[in-house]
């Protein structure tokens, strides 16, 4: 689709970045409206829904998938997809917890090693995508399985417990007024702020959009598209490692069975947030909104006493609506 | 790639069948587990391996790729028949979908034994060696009732996921043990009662169990009894309570008896758990397989492999063993 881009785009390679404010209003507003409607609905259904404590809780619950979704958004913006993210998150968590416990490494260093391992996997993903020109879907399907096997083998399928307190510190809370917030939530919001700034305000960020929009045109204006892609995969890998850290802090253990559905959960969040699976279009904050939509439904339905299977149903419907809206708006733009 | 791989594969298959032929007089017994990774199935395999060694049988094993993977188990049944297995033990990933493959095997004279969970219908296999999950639920229900001692109950149930028979049996058994009006062991739906203030799915997963418990605490902060489908879900529930500063005086009960779970009983995280015995299921199965191969006698019907209530604080009128006993019989690390 990108190859058939009309002339104006070819002459203005940064158009992907410049187009944002006008072209994405529907894509951004859609998920926000869905989130708002869901909140209003649950507020009328349960007395416990509308409280600072409950919202803080939902933010904590979406932090892990939310951070994974940042990396996933970067990859999807370039026109790729990353299936390995959830398993890398699990692997990073096992590496950091085992390094800290069985090897007795200082917690900060162990966390660094965990993030290093997931970044290394990101590098492998990136090299295979850029050097051998394999489709990201297949490459990350492979690394997903490798990471899963590595997690099981290295952990012996056993949960890692008795972690040093520093490793779970991000799971601790602080109070604003009477509401408790977790440091993990702060970390996630900070990462979104940084990602938003980089994607919107820096040349590097615009290159990410440009590569996804029209790789050929981008290359012709002298941007090293392969290097942009490689950096995106490495950064995404490192972000999955940060998600491992948040997951370990939240649950207080290294869980070899963590993250099994997180790749699809993260893709769901990104798509619900209005980022186009064809690449080049999307706003990073939308992914947070997408993750929150899922979190709000899970929380609200439990408060209502309704089976969680309805959350799965609603998520499915919303995903279809989101991609349909994206497709229609693309057609309108052409 | 393919062209290189297939001759190699052919050689491997030939080598495999050659070694089979060499040991033709040895009874061959197959074991198919749900997955390779769950410590429960690792222990099961261990039990089967030991028994096979002592009885002079040859054990071949296979597993699904993940929970729910039926196709891999069908393939495994076919391969094991080809490999000359006369007995196949299986923990079915999909209790209904596996039945046609089992029927084909039985039509060829293979004895099929279901381990851990029944097929649907149960008589699709020759025999079933499994925990009585309803009874496992009753034991922890009785314990929780006694431990609560007359106080009004505010119960949270962290269940498996909708529609799974084991999830329903444990949940409904717990209700019955607690003295609530409960569906019987054959019902595949979760019972409800006013005392159960919040019911949520944990998928037997620690992180999801924690999330479910957090949401339930929002709904009802004065929870005092928590039923959990398994010990990872119980650990997740405890983390949620601890973060909310509400872990004191709450009774958490569970089912499984894995070593990590028993350690949590010792640590006071879980007050009581119903321990089940995967090693016994598999070793009984191998023994039956050897009998079939040597004497031609088949086993049939349901064999309860037993369940023991493990709790460090014994309750009057409820029979239990302490965590030391639990540790000596547990599975996993």
Please outline what is shown here:
The complex is a heterodimer of chains A (334) and B (333). Chain A is built from 15 helices and two strands. Chain A is mainly α.
Query: Reading side by side through the largest sheet of chain A, how are the strands ordered?
Result: 1-2
The CATH C-level class name of chain A = Mainly Alpha
Q: Which ranges of chain B are low-confidence, i.e. pLDDT below 50, for 5 or more consecutive residues?
A: 1-22
How many beta-strand segments of chain A? Answer: 2
User: What value does the Rg of chain B take, in angstroms?
Assistant: 22 Å
Task: Tell me the name of the CATH class of the largest domain in chain B.
Answer: Alpha Beta
**Uncertain segments of chain A of ≥5 residues (pLDDT<50)?**
1-23
Shape of chain B: elongated
| Tally of helical segments of chain A | 15
Fraction of residues in H or I helices of chain B = 40-55%
Integer count of domains of chain B: 2
> What do we call the CATH topology of the largest domain in chain B?
Rossmann fold
Task: Return Rg of chain A in Å.
Answer: 20 Å
CATH homologous superfamily identity of the largest domain in chain B: Response regulator
| Backbone structural class of chain A | mainly alpha
The secondary-structure element order of chain A is HHHHHHHHEEHHHHHHH
Widest sheet, order of strands of chain B: 2-1-3-4-5-11
Taken as a percent bin, the fraction of beta residues of chain B is 15-25%
N/C terminus separation of chain B: 40 Å
Give a structural overview:
The complex is a heterodimer of chains A (334) and B (333). Chain A is 72% helix and 2% strand. Chain A has helices spanning 7-11, 15-18, 20-23, 25-45, 52-77, 85-101, 107-130, 136-155, 183-201, 203-213, 215-220, 225-251, 262-272, 284-304, 309-333; strands at 173-176, 179-182. In chain B, 45% of the residues lie in helices and 18% in strands. Chain B has a six-stranded parallel beta sheet, sandwiched between helices. The interface between A and B is medium-sized, with 35 and 31 residues.
């Amino acid at each position: 689709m990108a190859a058939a881009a009309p002339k104006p785009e070819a002459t203005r390679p940064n158009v992907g970045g410049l187009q944002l404010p006008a072209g994405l209003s529907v894509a951004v507003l859609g998920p926000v409206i869905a989130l708002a409607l869901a909140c209003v609905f649950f507020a009328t259904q349960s007395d416990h829904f509308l409280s600072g404590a409950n919202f803080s809780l939902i933010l904590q619950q979406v932090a892990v998938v939310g951070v994974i979704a940042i990396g996933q958004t970067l990859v999807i913006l370039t026109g790729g997809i990353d299936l390995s993210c959830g398993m890398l998150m699990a692997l990073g968590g096992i590496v950091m917890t085992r390094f800290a416990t069985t090897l007795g490494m200082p917690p900060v260093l162990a966390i660094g090693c965990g993030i290093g391992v997931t970044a290394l996997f990101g590098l492998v993903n990136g090299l295979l995508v850029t050097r051998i020109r394999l489709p990201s879907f297949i490459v990350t399907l492979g690394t997903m399985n490798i990471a899963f096997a590595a997690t099981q083998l290295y952990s012996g399928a056993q949960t890692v417990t008795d972690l040093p307190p520093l490793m779970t510190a991000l799971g601790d809370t602080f109070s604003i007024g009477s509401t408790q917030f977790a440091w993990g939530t702060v970390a996630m919001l900070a990462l979104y702020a940084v990602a938003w700034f980089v994607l919107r305000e820096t040349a590097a960020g615009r290159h990410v959009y440009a590569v996804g929009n029209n790789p050929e045109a981008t290359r012709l204006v002298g941007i090293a598209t392969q290097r942009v892609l490689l950096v995106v995969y490495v950064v995404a890998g490192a972000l999955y490692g940060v998600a491992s850290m948040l997951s370990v802090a939240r649950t207080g253990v290294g869980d070899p069975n963590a993250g099994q559905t997180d790749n699809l959960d993260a893709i769901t969040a990104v798509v619900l947030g209005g980022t186009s699976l064809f690449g080049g279009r999307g706003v990073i904050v939308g992914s947070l909104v997408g993750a929150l939509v899922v979190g709000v439904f899970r929380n609200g339905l439990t408060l209502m006493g309704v089976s969680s299977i309805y959350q799965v149903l609603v998520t499915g419907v919303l995903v279809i609506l989101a991609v349909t809206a994206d497709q229609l708006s693309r057609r309108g733009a052409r | 790639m393919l062209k290189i791989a297939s001759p190699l594969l052919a050689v491997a298959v030939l080598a495999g069948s050659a070694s089979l032929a060499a040991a033709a007089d040895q009874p061959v017994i197959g074991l198919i587990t749900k997955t390779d990774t769950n410590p429960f199935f690792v222990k099961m395999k261990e039990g089967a391996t030991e028994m096979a060694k002592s009885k002079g049988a040859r054990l071949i094993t296979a597993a699904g790729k993940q929970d729910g993977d039926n196709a891999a188990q069908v393939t495994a049944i076919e391969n094991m028949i080809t490999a000359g297995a006369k007995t196949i033990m299986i923990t079915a990933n999909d209790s209904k979908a596996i039945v046609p493959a089992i029927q084909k095997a039985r039509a060829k004279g293979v004895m099929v034994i279901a381990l851990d969970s029944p097929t649907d219908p149960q008589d699709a296999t020759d025999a079933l060696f499994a925990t009585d999950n309803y009874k496992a639920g009753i034991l922890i229900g009785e314990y929780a009732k006694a431990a609560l001692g007359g106080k009004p109950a505010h119960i949270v149930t962290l269940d498996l996921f909708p529609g799974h028979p084991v999830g329903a049996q444990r949940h409904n058994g717990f209700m019955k043990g607690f003295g609530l009006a409960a569906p019987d062991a054959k019902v595949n739906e979760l019972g409800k009662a006013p005392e159960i203030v919040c019911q949520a799915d944990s998928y037997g997963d620690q992180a999801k169990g924690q999330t479910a418990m957090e949401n339930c605490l929002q709904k009802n902060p004065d929870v005092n009894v928590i039923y959990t489908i398994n010990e990872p879900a119980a650990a997740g529930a405890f983390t949620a309570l601890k973060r909310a500063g509400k872990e004191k005086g709450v009774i958490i009960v569970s089912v499984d008896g894995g070593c990590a779970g028993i350690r949590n009983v010792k640590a006071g995280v879980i007050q009581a758990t119903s321990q089940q015995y995967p090693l016994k299921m598999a070793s009984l199965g191998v023994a039956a397989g050897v009998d079939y191969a040597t004497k031609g006698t088949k086993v049939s019907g349901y064999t309860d492999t037993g369940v023991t209530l493990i709790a460090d604080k014994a309750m009057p009128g409820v029979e239990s063993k302490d965590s030391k006993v639990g540790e000596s019989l547990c599975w996993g690390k």
